[in-house]
Amino acid sequence: MSPKYVSPDELKQARQCDLLTYLQAAQPQELVELRNGVYCLRSHDSLKISNGKWYWWSRGIGGRSALDYLIEVEGIPLVEAVQKINAMEGIEKSVPSFYVPSHKPFVLPERNSNNDRVLQYLQMRGIDREVIEMCIAFDTLFEDVHHNCCFVGFDETRSPRYAMLRSSDPNRSFLQEVAGSDKRYSFSLPPTESTKLYITESAIDALSLYVLRDNAPDNYLSIAGANTPRGNTLPLALEHYLSMHQQIESVCLCLDNDCAGIQAASQSQVR
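and the corresponding structure tokens:
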């Protein structure tokens, strides 16, 4: 007889498995690669997997973990879904695919001749023009030749090491990291001497928070998603930022109010 419950540790273990890793091990025939790092399913072609997240566009549901998928899409009860994931041979040792370091050299996308569409899109999202132009002036934001917003992160020598692309078309959901990006150097606003750090999942969230707080001169960092690599207490971007900015005394977690955001907040024990 199957048990009617699972332990907190079993549930935690199951939630650490992302959908792409699970399907690569359990149902590789289901995966169809659309472009670098973006997949759909043969049985549900409107269900897309990208950057550690999945979203079923025809049904309007999504999530991050394989557990969410088994429950929401396949209709498997929680206990059975947890057991199904944890029982898979080798699944515990696999690192979620969106954290596997890319071996491709990091190269910024080609720039467009202007930033007009990015300015229009971000202003439509409620971000003040002067804030957008500040980011453009610091080279942390530009419009690429495909008219995507390109949010850039730099290392300590001011060399670009990270970039996230977001479509400037409000009717498109395109969101993808540039190949070779190093998550330690995710997008952030210019650092200040403030002892406070506000972290968000996306670059647009960081800009929105900055505007909502009336441009308060604190520190703002996007951690590029709410997932934390196995073996890490903190997201890579946050861990590195704190190591480089010793004056930080308090961190405010401004993450999405969903399962992934809540779990990331509970796991981010900053000392």
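(Above: one complete record from the training split.) The longest helix spans residues 203-212.
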